Amino acid sequence: MDSTTAERRYRAFLAAAQLRYPWQFRCPGGPEDAEGVQVDVPPGWYGVLERLFEQVEAGMPMAERHGFRWRRLCARQGMLEVAFDGLRDPVSPRVVEARDRAAVTCEACGYPGARREVAGRFAVSCNHHFIERLLHGHPQGESAARHWWDTPQPGLGNRTPAAYMAAGPPSEVLIEQALRLAMPPVPTLEPAHRQRLQAVWPVLDEALGEGLRSLRVAEFNPRARRGGTLIALVAGSADASAQAAAVTRLARNGFSDLRLRLVAQSDLVAPAAADDPWACMLALEASVSLSRAEPDQAFLVR
Ligand SMILES: [Zn+2]
């Protein structure tokens, strides 16, 4: 979809919503327009929002409608952000449902999807649009991505990825190939950087305990000042609360420039099927290992 068509679709979606549920977009005391309502959602989520508007219409008592309006309906890093003024009880549970639905709805097409990363950006994508995002992120640019797209691949039974995808839903093999192609270069760590990064070992040992098996660094380029990605390979499954605790500890110890990703070792066998395919493939193809620092002998000798 080109940008003009997308813009037209977006305007049509918003105009229809305002026409159908004018009270939800009204500025209290102001003119009846949507000024001040921040709306920025991808087309795949229009259905999620339409359902939300409809449910709020059905659940909000007439007498309370005058105090209600949406303030913010936005997609941010693959999550739906919603803010509104007015009575909370009939609306909040519907907002939670809408967020949950958005979390599994492809932002591009509205089919089932999952929230996945491509080069630091998260979005909810179906497999088809995940591949599209990976190709957009091709480090050698669009022409290299197109060349791969139109070249027969032995791993795909000598079919081109284009033909392969046209024949049916994208398989894990195709996703894995696209992931591998989109990987950034393997970073080179200068000794000073390596020494500094090795200091994350004790920090994460404490946060992740025995589950922590190894550490790898990817997307690390101090000159670009974008920090780097720290991949902690763990035994068992990657736990969200352990991840949050570890992120806090890293920040407290001066490592807020590192984005932490927990990857279950078992996921490395099938990166395309993992919860975090991008971090899995970084671990496999585009990262360097960070060994535990050697104990400082001079310090140990008393
Ligand atoms: Zn899609």
Number of helices: 13
Strand content: 15-25%
Biggest sheet features = 4 strands, mixed
What number is the mean pLDDT?
90
User: How many β-strands, per DSSP?
Assistant: 9
Assembly state of the chains shown? single chain
Helicity level: 40-55%
Walkthrough of the structure:
This protein is of the alpha/beta class and 302 residues long. The chain has three domains: 3-102, no CATH class; 114-182, no CATH class; 191-290, 2-Layer Sandwich (Beta Polymerase, domain 2). The protein contains 13 helices and nine strands. The protein has a four-stranded mixed beta sheet with strand order 8-7-6-9. A hairpin with a 2-residue loop joins strand 2 and strand 3. Helix 3 (46-59) runs antiparallel to helix 4, helix 5 packs parallel to helix 8 (172-182) and helix 10 packs antiparallel against helix 11 (240-252). The radius of gyration is 23 Å and the shape is globular. It binds zinc ion (ZN). Zinc ion (ZN) binds at residues 106, 108-109, 111, 113, 125-126, 128-129.
In short:
The chain is built from 13 helices and nine strands. The protein is an alpha/beta fold and 302 residues long. The termini are far apart.
Q: Characteristics of this structure?
A:
302 residues, alpha/beta, Beta Polymerase, domain 2, 3 domains, 4-stranded mixed beta sheet, 3-stranded mixed beta sheet, globular, binds zinc ion
How are the SSEs placed, and which strands pair?
Blueprint: H1 3-20, H2 22-25, E1 38-40, H3 46-59, E2 69-76, E3 79-85, H4 92-102, E4 114-118, E5 121-125, H5 127-136, H6 142-149, H7 161-166, H8 172-182, H9 191-198, H10 200-208, E6 212-218, E7 228-234, H11 240-252, E8 258-264, H12 277-285, E9 287-290, H13 297-300
Parallel strand pairs: 1-2, 7-8
Antiparallel strand pairs: 2-3, 4-5, 6-7, 6-9
The chain binds zinc ion (ZN).
